[in-house]
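debug: dumping io for the single-chain case to check the tokenizer round-trip. Nothing else runs in this session.
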Amino acid sequence: MKKTLILVLVLVSIFSLSAASFAAESIRMGKADWAAHGTRCFAVAVVALQGDVIVGAYLDEYQMLPRAETTGVPNSDKAFGEAFANPEQALASKKVNTEYYSNNMANAGSTVTIANNFKALEDFVVGMTVAELEAFLSNNDKEAVVDMVTGATLTDNYGYLTAFWAAAKDAQSK
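debug: decoded output
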């Protein structure tokens, strides 16, 4: 009798778990190309949204960097790269070139790499609803947000978080 009861409880538990996974909301992806940090670069923010909750986030930023010292985006050393006004520079990812870019940040006093700053911002938005992120942005000014994200010391945290919000809105529109 005890074995039968245990078997029934196990089967009910397994059925409950499988039914819950079938009922889970689908994941929608959203992307925003955003001027989060001045006029010499652009950010690309991507979010995975399940229901109204951000369950995944990715951020990178692209800027013209010295071709000889950095790795450019694909084809920057081919015909695509020939279109750049300054042949000494290439469009490059700050994450891919985190060592180079972070050295420049260190010269300005930063102790956190660009990749780790972006990771902190990604971690900050994961688990938030779109409404919570929107309220956070609405209730805080740009200067205050610099110190509100643990591990992110960028002066434009607000711009990057706004890019995530735009990506989340893009996901909601799908």
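debug: round-trip ok. Residues 25-172 form one domain.
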